[in-house]
Amino acid sequence: MLQELVTILTQKFLVFTFQVSIMEDLDLKRQRIFGRHVKRLREEKGFSQDDIAARCRVTKGSLSVIENGNRNFSFTTLLALAKALEVEPKKLLDIDFELFEE
Question: What CDD domains does the record point to (predicted)?
Fold first, then answer.
């Protein structure tokens, strides 16, 4: 009986670990999609990374990391990005994250 319980718990742990891994992959994918969107908006407006970084008080390196999809950042940074890009915050989020492919 104890062995059965251990087997069941082990299986549930493996399933949980797999689900967490899938969610982490999905989060990274969404961060990359968002980063490309920010970069596209920045370039359409003719702003450099230096321009936007200075306007939203982040380093150029931090902005680069966001644009490359390698950073999960705060809500206040999202608001600062929108202001620096001269767009409404909803424009930054106006992406169907599920339809984009890598």
Answer: HTH_XRE (cd00093)
d(CA 22, CA 64) in angstroms, rounded, equals 25
The pLDDT tens digits of the residues spanning 27-65 come to 888 899 999 999 999 999 999 999 999 998 889 999 999
pTM for the structure as a whole? 0.72
What confidence tens digit (pLDDT) does each residue in 73-96 have?
Answer: 899 999 999 999 999 999 998 887
Say which residues have a Cβ less than 8 Å from residue 31's Cβ, sequence separation at least 6: 69, 70, 71, 72
Using DSSP's 3-state secondary structure scheme, residue 70 falls into coil
User: Got the DSSP string for 20-67?
Assistant: HHHHHHHHHHHHHHHHHHHHHHHHHTT--HHHHHHHTT--HHHHHHHH
Taking alpha carbons only, the member of 85, 72, 80, 86 closest to residue 35 is: 72
Q: Which SS3 state, helix, strand or coil, does residue 77 take?
A: helix
With residues binned 3-state (H G I as helix, E B as strand, rest as coil), the percentages for the chain, rounded to 5, are 70, 0, 30
